[in-house]
Amino acid sequence: LSSLPSSMHFMQVDSVQRWMEELKLMADCECMCILQSKPISMEKEEENELLLSSQHSTCDNLQLLLKRAWIISTELSRIAQKLEKNRWQRVHSMTVRVNCHVRSMINEYNSFCRNSSQEMHQFEKLLLDKCSEFTAFTERCIQNEDEEMLQAMKSCIHETLTTVAQYFGQLIELVLTHEAQNLLRQLDLSDSMDITESALSSLFSLAQEGAHLCRIIAKEGGVAALFKICRQDGFRCLYPQTLRTLASICCVEEGMHQLEKAGGILCLADILTDTSHSEATHAEAAAVIAQITSPQLTFTQHLSSFLENMEEIVTALVKLCQEASSGEVFLLASAALANITFFDTMACEILLQLNAMQILLAACSDRHKVDTPYSRDQVVTILANMSVLDQCASEIIQGNGIQLLMEMLFERSSSGNSSEAAACERVQQKSAVTLARLSRDPEVAEAAVKLSCIPRLIKLCRSPTERNNSDSVLVACLAALRRLALTSPQGLEDADFQQLVKPRLVDSFLLCTNMEESFV
């Protein structure tokens, strides 16, 4: 079943809520599918078509289609599982249900799609015929009690199931490609603000459904079409929405290639440096920069034009951090800067020249800007990457940065949310890494010792709950502790020195990971 669409992505919602949403779709299958989407009489046909088209927007129809497709792909996977267990009755009943779902999906799609291709109609017929054949095949199985005969039929059923899945996957691919083409055609040809905004909204919803959908949009020229909007002054109020859609599409390699080909970096640099644009537009442009420079992506090497415009972009992003009116804007701008410091080491030197260290340290004391562990994660990432420069030490002392790093060693999640807890771990780890790097400067090391960094590092090493059982935090803290111990060995008790500093790092690590907390 490798041909099943792997891109079906839905927001995580409560299971009961999901069940309620799907109940109607599941119940529809119990109806006579041949009657679905049919007018009661010929005279009412035009009226019914009008009702159908006005009842749902393109976005709603696509969501309905994707939900139906997700149900079908799930059912096909379950059929394969039941087939392996020789649950013939279940296999047949589920096959009937899939048959109904497929017919419903095709009827629903054809009710709002008026210009589907001949190739699509051919695949619809192939899929419907194969589903009917599959249903008939499984019906013969439940009427047959000969185990040897059933085992002999099993491979044929599996082959038919694979073919159904293949045809289904190809049909969904055609449908989604067709819808992406329609939306992009609207963007390309429309001069109407309302039509363009509606097409953008539908395209953004489509891009949210996963990487596969983003590849389809990029392949059909979506990136170029979106940058075309960003170059038209008449659509300025749609720039934030357009850039948000671009950020989604550029999570895939095809999107990145198209961005480079469309001269997207220069366009983004122009938007960021144009002071006449709104803060929302600047923030969304920063989000695109953050996406395309993400260190998690392995295909950024071709962004040669980024280096040509890097100084302009970095300057604009620092200014956006300084002037951000909300935590969200600061987060997007600082995330872009953090990623750029991984992308190219020259960025750290530019940041130092722009006094970025002082701006970021000052922002951390402003709760309107830095209000979450996610924002602090971006700031400390920038500090950690900048700390490789020798000039950084004096800057961080002047900005009271050692105190900030000490506070970050106490970062803990208050909500219990796993994503927030992971961000807190990264903050602890990177603050320890920054301390270790900066402490090669005696003045920084002395300041860290005075602020009682050593006891806190020891606590993080010895207490798993303080570091949320994170091994990466432990390693960083051990490295920072060893660096500070060179400057102030008297700050450690003999037991701490013997266990956490004197042995090899790996031995201290193993000792701490096996250590049981004392609750006395």
UniProtKB/TrEMBL annotation:
Organism the protein comes from: Ceyx cyanopectus (Indigo-banded kingfisher)
Gene Ontology cellular component list: apical cortex
Name of the encoding gene: Insc
Membrane-crossing residue ranges in chain numbering: none
Residue ranges occupied by any Protein inscuteable homologue C-terminal domain in the UniProt entry: 68-520
Domain Protein inscuteable homologue LGN-binding: 11-56
Alphabetical list of Pfam families matching this protein: Insc_C, INSC_LBD
GO terms of biological process kind: apical protein localization; asymmetric cell division; establishment of mitotic spindle orientation; regulation of asymmetric cell division
Protein name: INSC protein
Record-level Gene Ontology MF annotations: cytoskeletal anchor activity
